[in-house]
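Quick one:
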Amino acid sequence: MKGEAEKPKDTAHLRAQVHFQRGRQLFNANRFEEALAAFEEAIAADPEYPRIHTAKANALTMLGRAEEAVAVCEEVIRKKPDFALAYTAKGSALHRAGRSGEALENHRRGVELAPEEHLTHYNFACYWALEGNEKECEAHLRRALELDPKAKPKAATDADFASVRGKEWFQDLVAF
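Output:
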């Protein structure tokens, strides 16, 4: 009987994973409304999966709904205070809301909690590019792409890197 009780949760988690992966693909294609809908479907299937909530927050941020994104992240942090991606998603939302100092604190906390997670460094690199700190941007982007070279195509086209896109170091980093 134990297996039967676990099966619906396993099925729900798999359903959530399918919606989450579809949402990530849509997000990476800059189709943020559709990504948000996919993330919401994933949350409906498995509301206890924090990575989906932070993905939803990122989509909200890209849609200009930064304060909603901050609220989503704060709820994740309340439940899982060591979940690094919630801090970097919150940092991105705060930055877009014009709260740069708070954003910096959250990005630092995310990297501190998960120094081997490429997304914490990637998001921090975006922060630094938008702040005009090329040295910090390069250091964090370099680390992000060392941890996950598959992120190069996203970095090559990410609008957050417009200030450094023409730099030789950037071109070298995102080259295939």
